[in-house]
Structures are given as structure tokens and as C-alpha cells.
Design a protein that fits this description.
The protein is mainly β. It has one domain. It contains no helices and five strands.
Length: 61
């Protein structure tokens, strides 16, 4: 398929741990969210971070 852009902002993690848009399509490049990760955040520069189990500081995904 084609790559598209969205400003929707409704993201979710599918059963495989992949970050997807509201239609269930994976983001490109694909971003894997480890099980138990919390506080997934998007930086102004496009970086995606989350707090991983056992950590207190965000980790870039």
C-alpha cells in the first residue's frame, strides 16, 4: 500500500506490540512497544519514547 499522513493522533498498540493508527495500520517505520511499557509519548522531533518495566526514565523506541 501507499504511505499516508495523519494528524488524527489516535494510536493504539496491537496484539503483536506494534503501534498502529486508529484503523489498525502500523506506523512507518514500524514501532514496537514492549509489553508493560507505559507513558508512550511523541516528541516534537518525531521520537517516540516510553517508560519500560523496571525503569523510571523514558526510553526511545
Amino acid at each position: 500500500g501507499d504511505i499516508a499522513y495523519t494528524r488524527d493522533g489516535n494510536m493504539q498498540v496491537n496484539a503483536d506490540g506494534v503501534l498502529t493508527n486508529s484503523e489498525g495500520l502500523p506506523l512507518q517505520p514500524e514501532i514496537d512497544v514492549p509489553a508493560g511499557a507505559t507513558n508512550v509519548a511523541f516528541g516534537e522531533d518525531g521520537t517516540v519514547t516510553a517508560i519500560l518495566p523496571g525503569d523510571s526514565d523514558p526510553t526511545e523506541l
